[in-house]
Structures are given as C-alpha cells and as structure tokens.
Amino acid sequence: MPDLDPVAIAHMQLNDVRRQLLDAAAFGKLTPPEWLEHMAGRVADGLRIYTAALDSRTPEFHPANLVDDIDH
Questions:
Q1: How many independent structural domains does the chain possess?
Q2: What is the pLDDT of residue 47?
Q3: How far apart are CA 13 and CA 9, in angstroms?
Q4: In the prediction, which pLDDT does 53 show?
Q5: 48, 26, 23, 39: CA torsion to nearest 10
Q6: In which domain of life is the source organism classified (predicted)?
Q7: Worst-scoring range by mean pLDDT, 30-34, 55-59, 64-68?
Q8: Looking at 1-72, which runs of residues are DSSP E strands?
C-alpha cells in the first residue's frame, strides 16, 4: 500500500471522528470522556496537518494574502 500524504491522513482522521460523533448522536450512544478526549486529539492533529499544508504554500496563494480589494 502506498504511503498517504499527510493531508489525506488528516482528511481520513477528521471523517472518522465525524462518523463516530454522528453515530453517537443518531443512536443516542453515550461516549465516554476518554473517547471524547481521543477524538479531540485526532481533530487537533488533523487541523495541525491542514495548517502546516496551508503554511507551506507559496506566499501569493496563502489564504491570509487573499484579501478583497473592495472599497467599503
């Protein structure tokens, strides 16, 4: 199996947490605090990976530099 890039791994982690939370909500499952902490850690890891990927883009295409020049 080929190695996945970090953004693909982050996407899979976030989708997995999303599915677990939807499953718990849809079927009234109780989620122990330890699981919630684990899921929060996975979300934090995914966001860290996404942020690192955005920061590695060329500066002209970085979202912080994409500001509208509309006069208000």
A1: 1
A2: 93
A3: 6
A4: 87
A5: 30
A6: Bacteria
A7: 64-68
A8: none
* CA atoms of 36 and 34, how far apart (whole Å): 5
Q: Is residue 22 part of a domain?
A: yes
Both tokens assigned to 29: 């499952």
In a domain, 31, yes or no: yes
Q: How far apart are CA 37 and CA 46, in angstroms?
A: 14
Domain ranges, residue 30: 6-55
**Does pTM top 0.85 for this prediction?**
no
Residue labelled with tokens 């080929």: 2
Other CB atoms within a 10 A radius of the CB of residue 10 amount to: 22
Residue 70 lies inside a defined structural domain of this protein: no
CA dihedral 46, 9, 11, 44 (to 10 degrees): -10
